Amino acid sequence: MFPAWRHGTRTTRGSRLSQQTMFEVTAGQVLVFCWILMSATCITRAQAQVDDVPPYFKMEPVQTQVHLEKNRLVLTCMAEGSWPLEFKWIYNGSELTRFTLEYRYLIPSLDRAHAGHYRCIVRNRVGAIMQCSTEVQVAYMGGFVEGERVQTVSQGEGALIRAPRIHSFPRPQITWFRDGRKIPSSSRIAIALDNTLIILSTVAPDAGRYYAQAVNDKNGENKTSQPITLTVE
Fold first, then answer.
1. What is the DSSP letter of 188?
2. Residues 6+ apart with CB under 8 A from 92
3. For residue 7, what pLDDT is reported?
4. In this structure, what are the phi and psi dihedrals at residue 115, rounded to the nearest 5 degrees?
5. Please, are residues 183 and 176 in contact by the beta-carbon 8 Å criterion?
6. Residue 49's pLDDT band (boundaries 50, 70, 90)?
7. Nearest CA to 90 among 112, 69, 61, 70?
8. Exposed (0-12), middle (13-18) or buried (19+): which is 166, by Cβ within 10 Å?
9. pLDDT band for position 50 (cuts 50, 70, 90)
10. How far apart are CA 89 and CA 94, in angstroms?
11. pLDDT, tens digit, for every residue of 75-104?
12. pLDDT in tens, 1-18
């Protein structure tokens, strides 16, 4: 609204007062209107902040997960809350990434060095939370460490044939063979918890070439050791 004095060329004293009053009232109304508008904007912004939701997890990861070596692994951080949400990944207490909008962490090809504890941190403008850690175990099988060897015992003595060492996770199942045949347990032959083959009171037929076969139940791999030749004198 424009002041009334701008619409005429001549004014009287009374009209000037009236016009001045109208101008002041109009200006006051404008100020009041602006104050109301600004207050409404502030209230709207305050309401938006009140309605913000801090981040929270829809589900926590499993405590332990086993994956095969060379497989692809995708870890996810299932969180919700007011956007934008930002994610950071932690491995064994050290930062893997900075905060980004990516809620996944990808390992294209696993190897045993990737085994460990992973967790994510999620934040938004309201707050931040840390995910429970998940332990990633990598199933693999390497080769037997030791090569061919020879053991000698006197007839009637006991023989302990130690299983060759092998790099594997989880610990493999060991089966003993002699000259190509599986060795059954008996009152004279047993296998200890550490897979050592125990022969009580050896006899001449116990002589031969012994092999340990290792089987990894997680990835299905199996390996056969170098021969261990037992001589009974």
1. S
2. 116, 117
3. 41
4. -65, 140
5. yes
6. low
7. 61
8. buried
9. low
10. 9
11. 999 999 999 999 999 999 999 999 999 999
12. 434 434 444 444 444 434
| pLDDT tops 50 at residue 24 | no
Strand-pair category, 228-232 with 208-215: antiparallel
Least Cα distance to 53 among 34, 30, 26, 80 occurs for: 80
DSSP state for residue 219 in the 8-state scheme: T
Answer for the pair 122, 131: CB distance below 8 angstroms, yes or no: yes
Place of tokens 């912004």: 45
For the whole model, what pTM was predicted?
Answer: 0.71
Backbone angles phi, psi at 192, to 5 degrees: -75, 170
Asked if residues 90 and 84 have their Cβ atoms less than 8 Å apart, the reply is no
Contact between 69 and 219 under an 8 Å Cβ cutoff? The reply is yes
Instruction: Return the residue matching tokens 């003595």.
Output: 157
- The one-letter amino acid at 94: S
**Tokens 């996810």 belong to which residue?**
76
- Specify the pLDDT at position 172: 96
The two three-digit tokens of residue 23, written as one number: 């101008």
DSSP 43: H
Side chain identity at residue 113, one-letter code: A
CA atoms within 13 A on the CB side of 14: 0
In this predicted model, what pLDDT tens digit does every residue of 173-204 receive, in sequence order? 999 999 989 998 889 999 999 999 999 999 99
The pLDDT assigned to 185 comes to: 83
Token pair belonging to 2:
């424009």
Nearest residue to 175 via CA among 130, 133, 225, 140: 225
Length of the chain in terms of residues written: 233
Report the alpha-carbon distance of residue 181 to residue 196 in Å, rounded.
Answer: 17
The CA radius of gyration of the chain, in Å to the nearest whole number, is 40
